[in-house]
Amino acid sequence: MGKDVVRIKLRETGKPDPPSDLFVVNVTHNAVSLSWKAGFNGGFQQQFRVRFKKKTSEEYTYSDFIAGNASGAIINGLNPQTDYVFEIMSRNVVGESDYSEEVAYIKTLGKIIDNYNTPR
């Protein structure tokens, strides 16, 4: 007879791990669509927050908190033809994770001018 060995690693509850695999799905002239993989939630429901800044700035802008079942978000209100840096973190009732080690760099597209609908 053979024997099976199963090892189960349990972790204590606590603050969540940072999300990973931050990825740019799509970029427009004023928005970016991001996706990520959630890290260990610390044993509690978690939420995510994206922070971003212009590449030449030190000042971050923060998104509202995003539901823990989400694996992506769209960040609107960006400036056309501008370089940005994005990071993500998670939080639960115990505390906040660090921001992700993965950083997404993007350049928004130029604004499209619609000559067909421009009054003449």
TrEMBL record:
CDD domains: FN3. InterPro entries: FN3_dom, FN3_sf, Ig-like_fold. It comes from the Eukaryota. It holds the Pfam family fn3. Signal peptide: none annotated. Residues 18-111 form the Fibronectin type-III domain. This is Nephrin-like. It comes from Limulus polyphemus (Atlantic horseshoe crab).
